[in-house]
Design a protein that fits this description.
Layout (H helix, E strand, L loop, with lengths): L10 E4 L4 H18 L3 E5 L1 H12 L8 E5 L21 H10 L4 H15 L5 E4 L5 H8 L3 E4 L5 H13 L9 E2 L10 E2 L5 H4 L6 H13 L4 E4 L7 H11 L3 E3 L6 H5 L9 H6 L10 H9 L7 E3 L9 H14 L3 E5 L25 E4 L17 H15 L15 H12 L3 H21 L5
Parallel strand pairs: 1-2, 1-4, 2-3, 4-5, 5-8, 8-9, 10-11, 11-12
Antiparallel strand pairs: 6-7
Length: 453
């Protein structure tokens, strides 16, 4: 390509290789291009490029300023399964190896930036990279640009996630409760909120050796972006800014505007538009069928169940959850993933449900796709961040109630039924939670409302 025909690249993005990170990164790229006209290039591995290209193909003019750059990567070179270029369906015991494999992207990413400089005579304005790509800060500096870190989630969870890995406070006390640097003294955390990878961290543990230098590197960024709203996480954002001692911008929510400003009955929110927003994944169930099923249910009557794209529950927990759901009599949509011990890509098995079960839930196989954008966290390393973000939702916001922690915990069908009845009740605690959730929804809508709307 002649240099005169080469599109000016203003911003380069480097997301972690997981669908739950690609989605907000693409949403941010759209917003940047829409508001500034800047060209944004997303750099990632070959198979992930195919996924992103499929997504952008459905968007026509809305993605005209978004480009894709391929970084060489061969999963076999890192002892990973064939074509393992993202965390989708990757077994838990392979996640650590996958994280380490991401270090191999440093050299090709650096070469890509040098190529940009040769073609357009100057570096991009900035690089926006993921939290665990701390090496991107050095690469940005060496090529004459700046790095901004985008963890793709909210402030509270990040504020807990980073110092837990860097300081390992739970290994410095005999108590099961501990405080964290950056948090108020009254904020206490419990070891049961941590994923086993975090609980085992001691500074020499495999995960520690990877996480500590990467997170330390990201703390040298020019600033951080958080997928949140000032009014929703005022405390979390304030504490994170003081902890990091650099700018932290709340840029959320990174969701399609039609999900925020329109009702489901709006003509502009058609099943086809919902399908397109599922970010390139093939549908396990048609949007039309799902909406038809929902239309038969009353307002605020359907329970939505999801554990994230990299987390699952044990067979016994799944059985008790299924029985509790059945006994509650409440209509629900369950985004299901095979329980622990089963192939993550296996089809739904009747043995996961109680024998003789009479209910027929609307199953949506998670390895095929989900009906709405990203749950809080998607990779297994974020399991603890999700639990800590839950602490914020429950204690600070008042919109969550805890049923159980970690896959080793025991739950009963009676407790499942009790919790469902409580949160679905239009009065009492359930009603209070709903009102607070509606207040948060209004803050979210206001955050994306443009002048004149």
């Amino acid at each position: 390509m002649d240099s005169s025909d080469y599109p000016q690249i203003n911003i380069v993005m480097l997301p972690y290789m997981a669908h739950g990170h690609f989605i907000p990164y693409l949403a941010l790229a759209r917003q940047i291009h829409h508001r500034t006209g800047f060209n944004v290039t997303v750099a990632t591995t070959p198979l992930n490029i195919q996924f992103l290209r499929s997504t952008l193909h459905h968007e026509n003019s809305s993605s005209s300023g978004i480009h894709l750059a391929e970084l060489p990567f061969n999963s076999a070179d890192h002892g990973l399964p064939p074509n393992a270029e993202n965390t989708e369906n990757l077994p838990f015991d392979q996640i650590g190896k996958f994280l380490v494999s991401s270090l191999s992207l440093r050299t090709p990413f650096h070469d890509f930036l040098l190529d940009i400089i040769v073609k357009q005579g100057k570096p991009p304005l900035c690089i926006i990279s993921d939290l665990i790509f701390g090496w991107a800060v050095d690469v940005a500096t060496s090529t004459g640009t700046v790095n901004i870190t985008f963890p793709a989630s909210g402030a509270y969870g990040i504020l807990a996630y980073v110092p837990i890995w860097l300081n390992i406070p739970h290994r410095q006390t005999d108590s099961e409760e501990f405080g964290l640097p950056g948090f108020l003294e009254r904020c206490r955390f419990h070891v049961s909120q941590l994923h086993k990878f975090m609980r085992n961290a001691d500074g020499s543990y495999f995960w520690s050796r990877f996480m500590q230098p990467q997170l330390s590197g990201s703390l040298q960024s020019f600033g951080w972006l958080c997928n949140t709203v000032e009014e929703i996480e005022p405390l979390g954002l304030d504490l994170l800014r003081k902890y990091a001692n650099f700018p932290v911008w709340a840029i959320g929510p990174l969701l399609p505007k039609q999900f925020l400003n329109k009702s489901l009955s709006s003509p502009s929110l058609t099943s086809s538009s919902i399908h397109r927003q599922r970010e390139g994944k093939a549908a396990g169930i048609s949007p039309e069928k799902c909406l038809q099923w929902l239309d038969l249910r009353g307002l605020d009557s359907v329970l939505y169940i999801c554990f994230g794209s990299q987390n699952t529950i044990s067979p016994s927990q799944m059985m008790e959850l299924a029985i509790g759901l059945e006994e509650s009599g409440n209509p629900f949509i369950w985004v299901i993933r095979p329980p622990l011990g089963f192939d993550l890509q296996s089809e739904f098995k009747a043995e996961w449900l109680p024998e003789g079960s009479v209910f027929k839930p609307l199953w949506v196989e998670f390895n095929i796709g989900k009906l709405k954008p990203r749950c809080e966290n998607d990779r297994v390393a974020n399991g603890s961040r999700a639990g800590l973000q839950f602490k914020n939702a429950g204690e600070e916001m008042g919109v969550a109630v805890e049923l159980a922690r970690v896959v080793q915990s025991t739950i009963s069908r009676e407790e499942v039924k009790k919790v469902i009845e409580m949160v679905m009740d239009q009065e009492g605690k359930g009603g209070d939670m709903k009102k607070k959730a509606e207040e948060i929804a209004e803050h979210i809508k206001a955050a994306v409302r443009e002048d004149g709307e």
